[in-house]
Amino acid sequence: MKQLLFSLCFLGVLSTVSAQESIKAPQPFGPVPSQKQMDWQQMEFYAFIHFSLNTFTNKEWGFGDESPQLFNPTALDVRQWARVAKEAGMKGIILVAKHHDGFCLWPSAYTERSVKNAPWKNGKGDVVKELAAACKEYGLKLGLYLSPWDRNHADYGKPAYISYFRNQLKELLTNYGEVFEMWFDGANGGDGYYGGANEIRKINTLDYYDWEETYQLIYKIAPKTLVWGIGPSEARWIGNEDGFANETNWSLLRQKDDLAGKVHYSEYTSGHEDGEKWVPGEADVSIRPGWFYHASEDDKVKSLDQMVDIYYKSIGRNATLLLNLPPDKRGLINENDIRRLKEFTATIKADFRTEVLAKTRVTANNYRGNNDKYAPQNAIDGNKNTYWATDDEVKTASIAFEFKKPTAVNRLLLQEYIQLGQRVKAFTVEAKIDGKWKTIASQTTIGYKRILRFDRVVASALRVNITDSKASILLSNIQAFDAAVFVRMPEISRDKNGLVRMKSEQGSRIYYTLDGSVPSTKSVLYTTPFRYPKAVKIQAIAIDTLEKRSSAIEIAKYGMSKENWKVVSVSSGDMTNVQRIIDGDPVTDWSFGNETHLLPQEVIIDMGAIMSIKGFSYVPKQQGHHLNLIANYEFFTSLDNVHWSRQSEGEFSNIKNNPIEQIKLFSAVNARYVKFVAKSAIEKGNNHTICEINVIE
Ligand code: FUL
To answer: Domain named F5/8 type C: which ranges (predicted)?
Structure first.
């Protein structure tokens, strides 16, 4: 009897096992990530460190002739970098080991241009080694940036340089432990010192480096290193240096076309739905306007609003986020940057504190073979290895979550089980409010992670409808949150005549100060535009009266208004619209130069009175495909529009990838007239654009 019972039980077990097994697991669809890419994607957030000779020369790109003697940080502490990154929840640090000027932060055996010829630690230091140890101590992964372009090396552009470059790669990938990411920047070739030749060396990025072979070398010596950037890479640039992916973001790329030079980099922002290779996007951005530290940017650290937007537009849009924290001349991440980073991480942490779906009743109108292994519960079980899956032929389906009582939500987080490919092309989200379903979002891709922000709704149920997918649907995680209302900072603008305008979101009031004090509800309430043509620092705050919450403080600094400014002469271009370059609006643009008026081109401005100035800025066009950017400039001042003295000349480094306001400083000088000369351009065309010219008082 006992025996019989046992056999019956045994048979019972067997039959359940075979029922489970008779369900075939879903098959991969299209390109899938490698384990290395999966591990990398799950890091989500890591730091970038730009720290080199440029930190000491106040440049964004060194020319290659700067002396290594200038590298002399007074308090370099890589453990501080690691601590800051760790506390911010980052998982690694990518260090720029060599930037375009060729200076090496490690004592490379192949060059004298390195820390070994710097006064720091009497030439005995090795920043890469120190950072590798600090990363280990703090449980962070180490990544490295080795600039392919070298403006110092005499052989750059010739075959000999490729051996040099590969030798350095070998040093970096064998002497410092595991490197999680190798970063190859796209800026390649142009003018430089090149061992004293001082010339322009153009190369074809795709041919010159023989990337296929370089990659083979890397995979041989460092198989765990993910290679980013140019060549047949395993992760791609997101196509801008603002840290944004598009809402539609495929982790796929038509890399063959890319390697044949047929893909414009703006396409990286979305990837390619029909890409033949898994090449996920990495969004890189600096916490300041520039990549290297400049004291003049101490008050230009990105605002909390910008930082939060960056998070939702990168990690929230299926990309990883590589955030640059440039150490200052001491060798420390600056206090201002740390403060902002802390505010940012606290805000993001708070946004995801209250999860509301885990305890809901979840149902789906389809799940694979009605088998529990693929049931909708898997999307809320907190286990990233289980997923809700539909039957193979089912490419549209709904998953619904019923709350025990009406619940407030304003964030939704979704994740596909990307190990089997990225599939979802479109989806909608509905909320059941007062018994009626209401569509609250209509979106496209999901990928590894997609986070939606929407106005708070109080719902009795939520429903996610996948409305289009390449193959069956596999979702491993769905969460919803009730984040505190984020009040956006007011926007401040001032026009040419000094008229100040402020704008905030509906439902909030703006309070401001003009005397440098911190604004609060006791400060002046903004009601209508007002005139303030003098130099001023305006600080404003928005208060959501209903939520009783306030925004971060917006600060706008202005010199004297431009009401008495006039453009007195231009070498070409349309004179009727030229005032756009002095209208106080950084968006309106004007161009000079054409087929008959080639570079250099100039514009002369009369400021109406003698002023002491110590710099100028050029605001380039920032939106669009053809920005017609100026690459090299000269800037002159005069008291009488007859006798001129040159105050500054040089390049707008990195303007192509990062077309931000270009600030150039010089020793203070009295001037009434200023002359801005465009000497060379980024694009081949003969048209060159200026949005605004400012002076720094
Ligand atoms: C760019 C470089 O030219 C910048 O200097 C910086 O390193 C940035 C991350 O990549 O393209």
So the answer is: 345-483, 550-697
Q: Which atom of ligand 1 is nearest to the CA of 99?
A: 7
List the CATH number of the domain containing 669.
2.60.120.260
Q: Give yes or no: residues 549 and 660 share one domain.
A: no
Residues 496, 433: contact at Cβ < 8 Å?
A: no
62 Cα to the center of ligand 1, angstroms: 12
Residues 203 and 318 in one domain: yes
- pLDDT, tens digit (0-9, with 9 covering 90-100), for 352-400: 999 999 999 999 999 999 999 999 999 999 999 999 999 999 999 999 9
Q: Are 418 and 531 found together in one domain?
A: no
* CA end-to-end distance (rounded Å), the chain: 100
Which of 501, 531, 558 is the last residue in one of the domains? 558
Please give the distance, rounded to the nearest whole angstrom, from the Cα atom of residue 165 to the centre of ligand 1.
Answer: 18
Cα 229 to ligand 1 centroid, rounded to whole Å: 11
The CATH number covering residue 121 comes to 3.20.20.80
Work out the angle at residue 466's Cα, subtended by the Cα atoms of residues 465 and 471, and round it to the nearest 5 degrees.
155
212 and 297 in one domain?
yes
Ligand 1 atom nearest residue 292's Cα: 5
Number of domains in the chain: 4
- Nearest ligand 1 atom, CA 96: 7
> Per residue in 443-466, is it b (16+ CB within 10 Å) or e — as a string?
bbbbbbbbbbbeeebebebbbbbb
- Residues near ligand 1 with C-beta < 6 Å? 60-61, 185-187, 284, 291, 654, 657
Question: Is the whole model's pTM more than 0.85, yes or no?
Answer: yes
Same domain, 213 and 338: yes
**Residue 432 CB coordination number (10 Å):** 19
Q: Using 70 as the pLDDT threshold, list the residues of the chain that sit under it.
A: 1-21
Cα–Cα distance for residue pair 61/52, rounded to 1 Å: 10
Total length of the chain: 697
Residues 430, 528, single domain; the answer is no
User: Around Cβ 5, how many Cβ atoms within 10 Å?
Assistant: 9
In a domain, 22, yes or no: no
CA 43 to chain centre: 16
Q: Which atom of ligand 1 is nearest to the CA of 286?
A: 9
Tell me the pLDDT tens digit for each residue of 130-178: 999 999 999 999 999 999 999 999 999 999 999 999 999 999 999 999 9
Residue of the nearest CA to atom 10 in ligand 1? 185
Final residue of a structural domain among 558, 586, 604: 558
Helices (H) and strands (E) in the chain — how many of each? 11, 35
Asked if the structure places residue 584 within a domain, the reply is yes
Which ranges in 142-226 belong to alpha helices (H)?
159-175, 205-208, 211-221
Residues 534 and 619 in one domain: no
